[in-house]
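Hi C.,

You asked whether I'd gotten around to modeling the 322-residue construct. I have! Everything is below, sequence then structure, no commentary in between.
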Amino acid sequence: MSSLQSIMSQALATASSAPRPDEAEALKYWGVLGEETELLRYDGLGLAFYDYLRATSHYGPTSLQTAGAKSYVTPEMMFQFRALLGIDIAFSAKEIEYLDIATMDEFLYQEYGTLKLAFQNGWRRSDVKTPYLTRVGFITYFSTQFMGQPVNTPLFSTESTRSVVFINNADRILKGPNHLILDPWTDDRFRHAIPRHSIDRTVSSQVADALPKLEPMFAKARAETLVKRRTEAISKGERPTPGLRGGMTGWEALQVLRNAEDGEVLREVSMRSQGPYDSFSVVERAAQNRARMNLAQTQLYNQVLLARATEQGFAAMNSAIF
């Protein structure tokens, strides 16, 4: 390439990377991620996803000793969030066969610790810890994913790196007509799409260099943890959890495990493995349980009425005697 061609290529690259006039208002609205500002719209976007998870999850925190009225993202919420943004992990048939909730919690312990995210220990049971990500920890994780995109890659590219997929899906969700991701400062939709130049590349380059190196480490740690769990389960004679199958994401697997742990039967698993009759039996048993509860409540109410009548009878008898 001649020197003239080189100069022209650099000029074209600079022109294509400069903010368009129609992006100026959006850039003013969002600010630049990585710059020191008191209030950044990206923080609001992170809080909006945080609010969404807190409002829609069926798996809230259990016991946790803490000071103040704090809120947290549970492991279930984190896997839901990753699935929503397209960056959830997936399991092979062998990996998922003996997967359990404690193992999935361990995946998050590994990542939270490495990324220095703020979290606290909650308890699934008296002897089983679980990581609860703080609000600050979640916002840090959220911003890190945005800043992890390769520096030489346009903000909305077609590359398959984790951060690019994350950003593209966040943008897609915000442009959708029926999403529930609302600006926490206004309770309304975000007014502008995310502009291409809203990330400080001089700051994000450090994250962009580090994240691709960390992801293989996380994958290796998960693989070792899964092998350890499988060996332990087989040595104890445990059976695989029904409903788990290869190709499931972390969020899908965790829902199956939670349903199994809570004693619930997934309709899909029931119909696939035992046919529609068993599905009907589940519904029938649920109706019988409700009937028994109603009968118990009626009997309890009758006992209350009898006790009141007896008490009133004794009162009347005492009044007649004395």
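If it helps when you're writing up: The chain is about 60% helix and 5% strand.

Thanks,
B.
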